[in-house]
Amino acid sequence: MKSTIYFSGVFMILGSLFSLCCCEKEQKAKQTEFTKADSLTESYLALKDSLLQTWNTMMHDYNRKIKAMQHLLHELAISNPEKQEALNKYEHRLQNLANSRYDQNSISNTEVVTEYDFASNSLVTELISLAESENEFAYNTTLQKLADEIRASDQRVNNYREDYDLIASEYNRFIVRNRLLLKEIDENPFQDTTPLFQMAAE
Fold first, then answer.
1. Which of 59, 94, 151, 183, CA to CA, is 20 to 30 A from 189?
2. How many C-alpha atoms does 48 have within 13 Å on its Cβ side?
3. Exposed, middle or buried: residue 120 (CB in 10 Å: 0-12, 13-18, 19+)?
4. What angle, rounded to 10 degrees, do the helices at 141-177 and 2-79 form?
5. What are the distances in angstroms from CA 155 to CA 60, 110, 115, 124, 169?
């Protein structure tokens, strides 16, 4: 009788220990799974944030160039009221340029980027030439600063695009490399790969 009770107690203890071990293994497995998912999500969000920040920095500089061109036209209109009609045409072209700005999706379209660059380069060249041809340009520091700002911003365009393509390429590699894992985290997978400027240039 005592032996039976003894063995029953031992089996109960062993059973409890076995259950405890199984629970701990299951808990560790779940914890590892959650940690991996959290790490993957964190990496994705960090890349996504870098991508957006790089794009916004480029667009901020773009907006400053547009404003500088507007201010240049305003300065020319003040000192040359007789040229208002011609300046109005430049103003119209500048507004069209601002409205035709590409976005993170449309840069995959070669025509969109090419047409924008042609319109932008033409307008920048013509406005700076127009300003420098005026007699007052030699002593008008406002015109000089605006022309320099527009020229410098225009020269930074390719650098910004290269910076964006670098982070976009890294983001795309991450998406491709972890596509299956990302789908396990969310049935609606994270955003697909994003276009690069170099795609439009090829």
1. 59
2. 11
3. buried
4. 150
5. 15, 20, 18, 11, 23
Kindly report, residue by residue over 107-145, the tens digit of the pLDDT: 999 999 999 999 999 999 999 999 999 999 999 999 999
Q: Which residue has the tokens 């527009």?
A: 150
Q: pTM for the full model?
A: 0.78
CA distance 56 to 59: 5
Rounded distance between C-alpha atoms, residue 71 and residue 83, angstroms: 16
CA 66/CA 94 separation, integer angstroms: 8
Q: What's the pLDDT tens digit per position in 148-183? A: 999 999 999 999 999 999 999 999 999 999 888 877
- What beta strand segments (E) does 36-90 contain? none
In the numeric block, the tokens 């109005």 are attached to 88
Q: Residue 192: which residues within 8 A CB-CB, separation 6 or more?
A: 175
Structure tokens at 6: 């003894």
Contacts of 80 (CB under 8 A, 6+ apart): 87, 134
Specify whether the CB–CB gap between 181 and 38 falls below 8 A: no
- Please name the residues in contact with 126: beta carbons below 8 A apart, sequence gap of 6 or more: 90
Chain centroid offset of residue 119 CA? 23
